[in-house]
Amino acid sequence: MASAFSATAKFAQPLPLNTTSSARSQDKLSPPALFDPFRTSSSAATSPFLGSTRQLLCKSNRPLSHRRSSSSSAVVAISDVKQKKPKSSSNLLITKEEGLELYEDMVLGRSFEDMCAQMYYRGKMFGFVHLYNGQEAVSTGFIKLLTKDDSVVSTYRDHVHALSKGVPARAVMSELFGKTTGCCRGQGGSMHMFSKEHNVLGGFAFIGEGIPVATGAAFTSKYKREVLKEPNSDHVTLAFFGDGTCNNGQFFECLNMAALWKLPIVFVVENNLWAIGMSHLRATSDPQIYKKGPAFGMPGVHVDGMDVLKVREVAKEAIGRARRGEGPTLVECETYRFRGHSLADPDELRDPAEKAHYAARDPISQLKTYMFENKLVNESELKAIDKKIDELVEEAVEFADESPVPDRSQLLENVFADPKGFGIGPDGRYRCEDPKFTQGTAQV
Amino acid sequence: MATVFQGLGATAAITAAANPLDSNKLLLSSRRSFPGKKTSLVVVRSDGSLNLNTGSSAGARRLDQLVTNAVATKADAAAASSASKPGHELLLFEALREGLEEEMDRDNRVCVMGEDVGHYGGSYKVTRGLADKFGDLRVLDTPIAENAFTGMGIGAAMTGLRPIVEGMNMGFLLLAFNQISNNCGMLHYTSGGQFTIPIVIRGPGGVGRQLGAEHSQRLESYFQSIPGIQMVACSTPYNAKGLMKAAIRSENPVILFEHVLLYNLKERIPDEEYICNLEEAEMVRPGEHITILTYSRMRYHVMQAAKTLVNKGYDPEVIDIRSLKPFDLHTIGNSVKKTHRVLIVEECMRTGGIGASLTAAINENFIDYLDAPIMCLSSQDVPTPYAGTLEEFTIVQPAQIVTAVEQLCQ
Questions:
Q1: Which residues form the Dehydrogenase E1 component domain (chain A) (predicted)?
Q2: Chain A partners within 8 Å of B196 (Cβ)
Q3: B98 touches chain A (CB under 8 A)
Q4: Which residues in B lie closer than 8 A to residue A416 (C-beta atoms)?
Q5: ipTM of the complex in this document
Q6: Is the dihedral of CA B186, B187, B191, B193 positive or negative?
Q7: 325-354 in chain B: CB under 8 A from chain A
Q8: Interface probe, candidates A253, A296, A411, A437, chain B, greatest B C-beta count within 10 A
Q9: pLDDT confidence bin for A442, thresholds 50/70/90
């Protein structure tokens, strides 16, 4: 079984800037502080951030059933359960159906991104393309727990978030090819995946600028329940962003507002340790991002982002909190991107040993192993899924290839929701009434 | 600066207010009927006669009548307002509040967010009383995080609400530039039309009374290039309420520029509901000799200069462009075609301001109708100084406007 707990030599060094040095020793761990924002003990949660969840384990083995008695043990219990050989299938974290769903979603993400790389090098898509290989566990672990009405906000690394949320692969691929059948009619591109139907609110090119939008979506959910008195409005918003964003002002401003008003939002940090070429440790005074949650009055959780089951357990808790109106959660998922920052990134700065370490913890392989060992599926079922996904992705490429490129007349549509915003022309008519307007040849 | 109607035969009608800026009584402007709305158009011509249901106020008038009626007199005002109900008098900030309150009553998705808008009532009292009436969630007091709460407003607008984001001073919205430029303006387009952003961003800007450089900024020049947004500037209680309501009802993101020194203007506005068209300019004073284009506070400097000009025998046509983006090229064009001379008076900086864009637009579209180059009077390219005398020199004063008109009309 691929160990989820192998620490890397790279991260065993103590962090020179960590001032909370009192609990550097690893036998004194207290994850309870992770979930309790009001705990003020300084010894809480000060284990060094070593890129391995083993360090965050509480020594006591708490069984899964006692999880609710102390909200802190969610992270603990997961690793415990995974280490034990389950005696009966009721101890498993997932059912067979769920397992297949998770597997399919992760394989879809992986195949799609691999196909993107191929297409990019063949000159079918252009610009900045940021691939998600290696991080699938985070997207699948969280988004598969959402309903269609819940919202997802992402960054430029958003293809897989859109796919997990339900946007058809052909729509995403078309968008990447810049065709008019893309989910944004070819006007957004790789970094701007939007879907009103599936409540994917983007796709943002500047880091951090999606977080306030996510906060706004969560605000709407609360507003609908409390002002508009819609009783079933408990929609949750997930905001995905990276470690680099966690040094940005918008992040902190939104943590404050979300906690202040108890907005139904989960802040998911996909900490892949690198912001293009800037190592997280070189950019951040206190690299333990989850600790920033309690500073604002919300729980902060660290979870192994290469393990979809662990992510899913934490996600259940965080999304449940938000849905019940208990407020936001900050979840830090330690994960890794197997490729460079984007397809234009030569990726020379990262240590091959680090890459190898995480490659060995490939989330898809880990899930496969888990399912085999617990006799949930057999080889042929997974192969069938692999084949199905391959065909799906091939079909998406074909569809995108055959789709038309946008016409000139599409240029000026969608600039304004109300095209009267283009104003009144010299002849007294609204510009948008000009027949040349739709042809895209009118001068605005 | 008390204004006195000297040399004009008509009685001066100055509505009582301590602020000298509102000493110019305003004509009811002609307006297009708002599509779908049953509003009757009332046009008050400067000779005091009333025309109903005319689309524009362009028309020949005899020159001699103008001298005595450079601005509307009390008699005119009475005549105008008797065409509809008597109306009620209020100050500009109250007009904004009235518009806001009516829209919040009408649609419960309309909400306000900003610093000190709730319990404090707004730093210029535009939202006073609204938090008590609508609750703390609908009139949301935000922490001091412009970028984040503007973005929050955008996210809320994308998901079904109709927020109004108040910048305590427009200058503070520089901190929200990321959200306004990238998200507010662009998301409708980059999402392929899937998400609309019916947000209104409003606040006071402009040069005040010795507020210092950072509180005296004119952000319309910075925002004007952002595709996908509309910008309007209000200048009277009438158009403040009308533009506020129109902006809230619009599906486009609208930035409404108010001016710090105009909040205490008093005017009588109609009791019945009305909306001002977001894309139209307002004819303030029809004339024959020269077109003066202006907006916001400079309108009052222009009208003051107009009195002097009229005494000297000139007949300026004054248009408050109101819509800073897009420009109402119809009203402006008709005026240029009539007078053949254009003077732009604005409070923006010389470089890259609204006047600069307007000059380019008029040159592009109406070059054949111009008898003289367009002159643009703007503020100096200087951070607004604190000292009162220096501050006066930074912005355009009525005397400069008079000189400019005389120069252009040679």
A1: 105-407
A2: 417
A3: no
A4: 188, 228, 230, 251-252
A5: 0.81
A6: negative
A7: 325-331, 333
A8: A253
A9: low
pLDDT, position A313? 96
B252 at A interface, C-beta within 8 A: yes
Q: What is the pLDDT confidence band of residue B85, given thresholds at 50, 70 and 90?
A: low
User: B368 to chain A, minimum CA–CA distance in Å?
Assistant: 13
Instruction: Say if CB B12 and CB B255 are below 8 A apart.
Output: no
- Please tell me the pTM assigned to this model: 0.81
Per residue in A410-437, pLDDT (tens digit) is 998 899 999 999 999 999 999 988 877 7
- In single-letter form, the type of residue at position B263 comes to Y
Residues of B belonging to the active site: 146, 215
Kindly state the helix (H) or strand (E) to which residue A165 belongs, with its residue range: helix A159-165
Interface touch A209/B183, C-beta < 8 Å: yes
Give the one of A151, A218, A423 whose C-beta lies nearest to B323's C-beta.
A423
Contact A158, A191 (CB under 8 A): yes
For residue B309, give Cα distances in angstroms to B70, B287, B402.
Answer: 10, 12, 6
Shortest Cα distance, chain A CAs vs residue B23, angstroms: 31
Interface check for B197 against chain A (CB to CB < 8 A): the answer is: yes
Distance CA B165, CA B163 (A): 6
Q: Quote the minimal CA–CA distance from B329 to chain A in Å.
A: 5
Containing A174, the helix (H) or strand (E) segment is: helix A169-177
Greatest Cα-to-Cα distance within chain A, rounded to the nearest angstrom: 81
